């Protein structure tokens, strides 16, 4: 087995919402342990693309294979498939009446049919992994946005997914909480998780992405290594995108080094 086995294969995928073509003949591959940062202007089709990968949206044409499973084939069990794909949304979607621990444990109990003791044991380990052991008993309303999002990540990880998909995981957070969530995603990358992350955090993209895909009007118009993407983008739209996002990126660099300076 090559270290670069394809884990997600997107083959000539097209999709419409009515007469509007939201994905136009998109093809791309994600190999094992790669981190893809998917970016592009609002409405370019980023959410739709990652939603089709986890069968949250149907496609009109083409094929998507995740870990050997044809996602949209008749006969594919979408529920089973989604267990192998962790999906983290912009809004944290925790169950408000369950503690952080039980939010992580619920899938282990209901879907994997583990005993309460074993589900809680694993959930404690998952909370530890996202730096939240000390918040196990907290209710979502008593957690910060960054903590809630980390619980949501722990919950997604509980199903031992082969792939993690993130749709703007930090967009709903106050700026001071963005870093803690990105750090968890970065740690996952270091552990070899295969991921696609939709984000506008260009600093994160530069540091963590193996590849950056830029979408425009339903197509991936640029696929590049971060260095190429930022220093020498090929497409005129990519150049514009990079220019308009550099300002923000520099601001967050300052913030991070500030934080480091002051411990
Ligand atoms: N359920 C739907 N029905 C009709 N049109 C839709 C639907 N979902 C998305 N669209 C349209 O498809 C286009 C792509 O939407 P999508 O949410 O994938 O964009 P995006 O790149 O994720 O944008 P954003 O950065 O704002 O999240 C948009 O023009 C959107 O209005
Ligand atoms: Mg979106």
Automatic annotation (TrEMBL):
The lineage of its organism: Bacteria, Pseudomonadati, Pseudomonadota, Alphaproteobacteria, Hyphomicrobiales. Keywords: ATP-binding, Nucleotide-binding, Transport. One of its GO terms (molecular function) is ATP hydrolysis activity. SMART domains: AAA. InterPro entries: AAA+_ATPase, ABC_ATPase_HisP-typ, ABC_transporter-like_ATP-bd, ABC_transporter-like_CS, MetN_ABC_transporter-like, P-loop_NTPase. It comes from the Bacteria. Belongs to the ABC transporter superfamily. This is Amino acid ABC transporter ATP-binding protein. It holds the Pfam family ABC_tran. Residues 8-242 form the ABC transporter domain. It comes from Aureimonas fodinaquatilis.
């Amino acid at each position: 087995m090559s270290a670069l086995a394809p884990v997600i294969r997107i083959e000539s995928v097209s999709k419409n919402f009515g007469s509007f073509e939201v994905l136009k003949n998109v093809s791309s591959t994600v190999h094992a342990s790669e981190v893809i940062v998917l970016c592009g202007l609002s409405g370019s089709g980023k959410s739709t693309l990652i939603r089709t990968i986890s069968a949250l949206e149907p496609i009109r044409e083409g094929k998507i294979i995740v870990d050997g499973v044809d996602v949209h084939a008749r006969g594919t069990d979408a529920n089973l498939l989604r267990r192998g794909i962790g999906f983290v949304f912009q809004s944290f979607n925790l169950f408000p009446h369950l503690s952080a621990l039980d939010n992580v444990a619920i899938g282990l109990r209901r879907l994997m049919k583990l005993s309460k003791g074993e589900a809680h044991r694993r959930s404690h380990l998952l909370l530890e992994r996202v730096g939240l052991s000390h918040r196990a008993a907290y209710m979502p309303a008593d957690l910060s946005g960054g903590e809630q999002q980390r619980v949501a990540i722990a919950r997604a990880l509980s199903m031992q997914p082969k792939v993690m998909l993130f749709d703007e995981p930090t967009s709903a957070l106050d700026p001071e909480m963005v870093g803690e969530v990105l750090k968890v995603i970065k740690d996952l990358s270091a552990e070899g998780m295969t991921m696609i992350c939709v984000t506008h955090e260009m600093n994160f993209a530069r540091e963590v992405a193996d590849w950056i895909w830029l979408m425009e009007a339903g197509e991936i118009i640029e696929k590049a290594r971060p260095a190429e993407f930022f220093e020498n983008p090929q497409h005129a739209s990519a150049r514009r995108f990079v220019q308009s996002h550099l300002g923000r990126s520099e601001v967050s660099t300052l913030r991070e080094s500030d934080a480091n300076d002051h411990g």
